[in-house]
Task: structure prediction
Amino acid sequence: MPKIIVSDSASLVDRWIQALLERRPDLEAVPVAALGDDEAARASVDYALIWAPKPGLLASLPNLKLIVSVGAGLDHLTSDPDLPRHIPTVRMVDPGLTQGMSEYCTWGVLSLHRLFVPLLNAQASGVWDVVHAPIASNVRVGVLGFGVLGSKTGEALQALGFQVCGWSRSPKQHDSIPLYHGEDGLREVLATCDHLVLLMPATPETYKIINADFLARCKPGVGIVNAGRGSLIDDAALLQALASGQAGGAVLDVFHQEPLPSDHPYWAHPKVIVTPHVAALTYPETGADHVAAAIAALEAGAPLPAVVDWDRGY
Amino acid sequence: MPKIIVSDSASLVDRWIQALLERRPDLEAVPVAALGDDEAARASVDYALIWAPKPGLLASLPNLKLIVSVGAGLDHLTSDPDLPRHIPTVRMVDPGLTQGMSEYCTWGVLSLHRLFVPLLNAQASGVWDVVHAPIASNVRVGVLGFGVLGSKTGEALQALGFQVCGWSRSPKQHDSIPLYHGEDGLREVLATCDHLVLLMPATPETYKIINADFLARCKPGVGIVNAGRGSLIDDAALLQALASGQAGGAVLDVFHQEPLPSDHPYWAHPKVIVTPHVAALTYPETGADHVAAAIAALEAGAPLPAVVDWDRGY
Result:
């Protein structure tokens, strides 16, 4: 009986196990915490559905054949220095997570576009201060990182009436959204977009990519929504751009250190909305299809869905 | 040369005049403020594009043939006790206004659905408190008042993944959104919806329609977005429902008295977002098409677009 170990937030582990067994009654699914410490127990594990493994854990499983990340990002895996990168690894693709990300980013862009950040401050001060926004059809939003999440988010923003474009490292195609890639493409996107949605993966190339130089190339007053990873932003540079007006506002869900330290200037910044990494959650009830599909593909020797290319970093 | 008088916020009057003359160079368009006070000046006015006329003004124009409201609502006209109701009157239909309303209501529903109201409070307290929302596809939103604005708003929410239904006084049809009407329909909508968007007109029938009885028939924790008119809500009843938990939160743009008085409990309420009547603005550049179409229809003896039925009240 093939065995899968499961780790996630405590409240979700039982839901994962139930959702997996509904799809694959032939599996044995056990919480990581319930896996014995002896060699036989470790040798019995075939698959791992994992969130932030204890360093060394995955490397200690001699018969591990597949790793499935509970999240779309991988930094919760790569924080394990002994992560066995030779074992096939797939990123999460979950319609629930995609949906949540699209909702969050839509809310974030609307919050910046409709000046809700100053309006919420006005409410806090009890001040009735009428401000009006431009028409969305005159406003351009750039989605940086244009995978499954970026594409769905771009479509939602386009359906709301915004001009939308996308940017990714390598060339991609979309039916209705113009896409750019590479350094030339980035220059064009930054020069023309009123708001940017960050959905890039955390890789060495994207580390602090939103730095002083990047922000200086944006349109004055640019709005930033970061639902990707905290590592994308050079916080000092963003704070300086907010102070100078080069950045108009920011809606931030992810941070270099989480929880965001209580003395961080973002918390009380009048142009910043801070949310506690809630943009998108993987839902076991919708994500289990992807886990089952990845296991089935592995068993059939077929190409794995959303497989990680460690050279690329995602 | 037919003459039209124009009144709106000071910053918009010139934009209206320019937009109208682009479409109808044969018109003479003048700000209300520039209209002379003598009989000849008053007799020269054929059409009025008007926002909150000085009481008695419209009744004093002997040759007035058409009134166009700058807003979708009419309460800024009916506050004139001498409003000449025998003169054909049309409501504004403006793609820019429709767009703005759909953006605001989408933002309001997302704010309630994604628990951004408590999250913003948590930020104000500097607290990292992770909360997760249900999947939008399991959440039902009812749009009460299903004219041009309600229909576009419903479509935007449906495109984002919500279950959406609509309610109106009289039966209507929509391709993809189930619609209800009348008292039986309202019962069904209130019993099943997680959030309600209020876009009803201000009429004697809708005055304080959101009262204690109405709220008691809603699902516990119901979210309320009011972008229609302040008169729709019995504020004491809503505050009581928020206190008991029967209402989960409210996003309010319109109020019985505007500006909202500085001592009103909504301002500092932890479950209420207050915005200063900014949901939707009529844009001269997009709304002038409707004004030109109404004048052309009148001149041709054709049916007027969005004509007001004063017996119905809108």
